[in-house]
Amino acid sequence: MASVKVAVRVRPFNQRELDLHCACIVEVEDKKTRLVNNKIAAGDGAESRERVKDFTFDYSYWSHRDGDQHFAPQVQIYDDLGTDVVSNALQGYNACVFAYGQTGSGKTFTMMGSQSNPGLIPRICEALFSSMAEGREAGTTYKVEVSYLEIYNERVKDLLRAGAPNDLHSLRVREHPKLGPYVQDLSTHLVHHYPDIQELMRRGNSHRTTASTHMNDTSSRSHAIFTVTFIQAKLQSDMPLETRSKIHLVDLAGSERADATGATGQRLKEGAHINKSLVTLGSVISALAEQAVKTSGKTVFIPYRDSVLTWLLKDSLGGNSKTIMIATISPADVNYGETLSTLRYANRAKNIINKPTINEDPNVKLIRELREEILNLKTMLQESGIFGLEANVEKGSLIAALSQKQAKEKELTDQWNERWSETHTILQEQKTLGLRKAGQGVVLDSERPHLVLIDDNLLTTGVTLYHLNNGMTTIGCLPTQDIRLEGGEVLEEHCIIYLQDGEATLESRPDAQCWVNSQFVDKPSRLTQGCVVVLGGSHMFRYNDPQEAARLRREGNKAHLNLSRLSFLSRSATDLVRSYDNLSGLVTLRNCCEGDRHARDGTSSGRGLDILEGDSHARA
């Protein structure tokens, strides 16, 4: 059991409040936040007692004036709140951080920050990858996936998926009987490094719905949920350990009054939907707070399904999550009503009790329970000192049960080891690859020497990349070869490429047809950046050595291989080769109508890495 942690942050005056010569009506001292109503005169009467309202929270941050002694910068917010999120994720708990407040109160700045002064989300993600780097040295394997959505006018939009404008807000919310609410068809993106997350955040933020209101020039007109799924697996004292954590980082749209924001038309409609979801959020918080203090056995109804926002945050509010709420407020007297409402909102949220549990893999949990039972059975056998027929029967049944459980435990452990061994191999393979958008195309980059298949088959819609092994890479038509090629006069064992000290050398088998830059290979031939390799007369490749290409770029080498010398090729193949002439260690897939999805759909196998159009099941 854990209560929701609540923090309040006071922002500086904005330009509008400075122009209006607003007075500061908020005071902060330790955990206490005080709100003063300047319209009520100070005195001794009952009315004057209503002039000051005090609230106590887990944290109260004064970020009003930079020069103040107790000023709270972005880094302090992270140190107090963000480090707990990272720690909880590493332990296997779900976590949620959401910012609530009126329009222009500093929610997005607290959560996202700026490039020079990052907020909670980028700091949490960066710290998570730093912790992963330390864990990998101890043998832990990690898998991290990211999704980013917004809720606009009660409809869900995938901020990381490319598509037609009419399809952007068409995702449906479903509920799994065990896993809870989820968004159907929401894209997830595998990330290996912190810069990958930075790029996804930048792309998602550029797609968010914003508009100008009287309160804020770039008001967020939607709720945004940035979700990091964090999976870790390791052996701890010879015991498998696998946990899955979900971190929801939520930037809510601003609560607002229509007259204060000057909303009309579409802005008024947006504000109505925003306020509806926030009212529902308030109702959920109130119901959960009432449930926490209720002593009778009567169940309190929680209206999660009254809005998409509360439905998706069901686990984070009263469920399996360690949750933090940050209430951002304006200190200006003109915003007294909104500020008081936010503080009351946050005060109710303090009473919510969640039930966080470590999200352990069911099979790993079963393995641990089986090992405990095996240990108990062994102890019973050792302590059994009874003799006679009945004792022998009892021992026999204990031995049979022990053997059965040992076999089951071994089977589950072997399956777990095999699964994570394959996952680790795939993740290591993908870490050497980099995918990025380039206009309407997708660029696939690799850090390792590789061959890129140049295919003149008109029915082929993808590009295949083959990494070379350190040492020896075998090529032929047998299934046992590292690179398997079919047809085109390819022998069972056609050739070998040796990669040693960063240099690749092709050695042809007797009677095998191999050419390098149109020269027939009858002795070991060194492969250089950009050279064209033809095997069996019909399989054409370009050899890329990223390190050599980088050296040539540094030296300013502008020379390119003249592929027109390959006169023995058919016209179509030669034209295709020319389309790859100016690539330096990169393969660009042009006119990719679903570039973002293809950047995700890469699979690694013995036949190379394929980027295929429409191959939705090829996801890593």
From TrEMBL:
Gene3D superfamilies referenced in this protein's UniProt entry, alphabetically: 2.60.200.20, Kinesin motor domain (3.40.850.10)
Coiled-coil ranges from the UniProt annotation: none
MF annotations from Gene Ontology: ATP binding; microtubule binding; microtubule motor activity
Residue ranges occupied by any Kinesin motor domain in the UniProt entry: 3-352
Any one Pfam family match given in the protein's UniProt record, by short name: Kinesin
Key words of the record: ATP-binding, Coiled coil, Microtubule, Motor protein, Nucleotide-binding
A Gene Ontology cellular-component term: microtubule
Domain of life of the source: Eukaryota
One GO BP: microtubule-based movement
Binding-site positions, ATP: G101, Q102, T103, G104, S105, G106, K107, T108
Family note: Belongs to the TRAFAC class myosin-kinesin ATPase superfamily. Kinesin family.
Descriptive protein name: Kinesin-like protein
Taxonomic placement: Eukaryota, Metazoa, Ecdysozoa, Arthropoda, Crustacea
